[in-house]
Each structure stands twice: as structure tokens, then as C-alpha cells.
Amino acid sequence: VFLDVGSNIGNHVRFLFEPQLYPAAKIARNFFKEAFGPELDRLNTDICVFSFEPNPDHYSRHEHLRRAYNSLNWRYTPIHAGVAHHTGNITFYHTGDDLGFTTKKSNCRKECRPEQVPIIRLADWIKREVADRRIPLTGNNTIMPPRVVMKMDVEFMEYEILPDLMLSGVLCNNIHAVMGEFHHDLNMIAYLWPMTYQGQGEGSLWTLDRGTAKQISTEWLRMMEHNPNCNTKFFMKDDESYKNDGQPLPIIQMPSNNTSIP
Known about the structure:
By secondary structure, this protein is an alpha/beta fold. The protein is built from 7 helices and 14 strands.
């Protein structure tokens, strides 16, 4: 199982299913080789992929990918929602710049068009849909054992989501590998700090500055990696290659009359 959390336009889904099209995506491809085995040995029909992306601008692209991959019997399910440490709705803002989409109004510099989108508690979803899944006896499981792998790029919400995954037990018990990044090292978005988050009580807020975020995330990763009760491996790098994809969308196969839809 691959969970693409914060999928954007779905590049990492394509890096996994169609690696031959993306020779420069070395970070992601090496991560997938470590998680799922060599590219030439694994079968796409053995992998279930779920993406989470709240930006409505990308819905149609993900639906095209779904139809194309499903026509090849590759199991891809896009979930048009954001993830959080609770379920509900949240206001996102279209920023009109490289940031694209943010939960923080203060991050807007060019424009700030609000849109309310659904969010789901990721820990609950993984418990319900993945943790207790029935693993088939057939397939290519001799190459690699069944595993759950996650890429996370959720634009500063990792400071809420990762602790929730850990405290719920989902992270260490059900996720074998995580690829992603904490956003404190990116100088190009240093202007976004400090970040303000919703607290437990109504109207309660808490603030996280960049230096504290770096210290917390560094020490948290070190503790998790040395904990004998945690099975999760962390690869805290993001693959920003092919930011705009650059490859044509896959063709939707039509088995009834051997035609296809571009």
C-alpha cells in the first residue's frame, strides 16, 4: 500500500507506477525501491495506491489518472480531501503563487481566495481502511513482504498530523516507511514562519517558530529511529523533480473495442 498524503498533481503516484518516464526522480525512485523492491521485479497490480489532495484544481487530473490506471488493473484511488488530526472541514486559500494552496491566511502574498474543503483524520482512516486489511495469498509477495508506505507533504500540518499518528499507535504499528519533509529548512518559504495552530479549546491557539520546529522535529526523529518498539523507517527528503510533470497523461484503455482515450 502506498499513501500519497498531500499529493498535489500526483507526481509520486506516477513515479511509482511509471518510473521509466522519470529518470531524474532519483529520491522517490530509490525510496520506492527500498520499500517495494526493484522496479523490474515488482508488479503494479500488487500495489494499492491512495492519494489525499484537497485542492479542487487537481481533482480532474486525479480522476483521469484513476481511470487510466484502473483500466490497466492498477489500483489507484484518489481521495479529494485534506488530512488532519481531526475530521471536519477547513478553509484553504488559493495563493496564486508557487505556494499554491495553504491553510494559513497569513501565508497569502499575491491573492487569497478562500475555499472550504473536507478534511479527515488520517489516523482513523488508516486504522479503518489499511490496518485491518485482508492480505491476499497470491501476488508478487515473494519479492517484498506486504507493507504500508507513506509520502507526506502537507505544508506545515505535519506538526499536527505526525504526533497524532504516533499517539494513536498507527505510525509505529502500521506504517513501515515514511518519505517527506519538515518545512523548517526551506529558506524560500522562511517568510511563512512562525506558524499558528488551533489548540484544544475553542478559540485556543498555539504558535510554533522556525527554530523550535527544527529542534523538535530533529529530536523527535532521533527518538523514533532509536525506539525498538517502532517499526517505521524515516526518509525525510522530498522529491521536487518534475514539479509540473512534463509527461503526457496515461491513456485510458478501452478493452471492449481495443480503443483508448487520450
